[in-house]
# Entry
Amino acid sequence: MTDQETLRAEDKTADEPNPEVIASVGVSDGDEVYRVWASDNQVYGPISLTILTEWIHDSRVFRDTWIYLESLKSWKQASAIPQLKEALVPGEDTLFLEQLRTSEEAVNPNELRVFPALAALSNHDLAQFIKLSELVLVNSGEFVIRRHEPGDAIFFVLAGTVRVRILVGRDEKVLGRISSGQFLGEISMFTQTPRSADIIAEEDARLLRFTAESFRALMLDNPGAAAPMLYSISATLAQRILDTNQKFQTEVASGFVWR
# Structure
């Protein structure tokens, strides 16, 4: 990677973002090019003003998002860049999302952008998704889901870690752990069948509950938002099934005793 592609640490002050990964998404031929420090702790760019403006309209860039200006060799918040003044005029959905970002008891849109199923949603689509969802707060040791309960929702883990377990007699068998940025319960949401395992918070956790009824409402009202969500959830489900099959095959193979 060349010096032009990588932003050296000495270009930043102690108060400015220090991204872990630099990702290039296109180079501009204009007078100014920019890089964006995103909520996933990666820097995207260089990009043109046109693309940056589009990202603002899609609610991927906010007023307090850090932007690197190549000509100045410095970081500035988007609200401090004159070229972005008009683009940052908030619409109704943007106002709704920004109000959520400043509330400690609400869903932060940046928490949802880390989910592949939600990352590409526009400002309007993300606002609609949040309005159809329910924030769930659980303390360490509390149940999120109990085995055999009716299943009608998927849960997006915003913060914390939860444990998936079943009881075999009096013994607990841990099937896995799910952390922030992952989701659970998708099978029961699609099949409307009882839950197959307990889900217990291993620490204080925040989850977003999205019901099958809400998903149907989104498909009817906004299929353009529902389609990429459905594809991403299906891809994750398929990968989990593949991983389980491979684990099963390994366990069966290791059980053979050759004579």
Remarks:
- Residues 95-249 form a domain with the Jelly Rolls fold (CATH 2.60.120.10).
- The two ends are 55 Å apart (CA to CA).
- The CA atoms of residues 111 and 160 lie 12 Å apart.
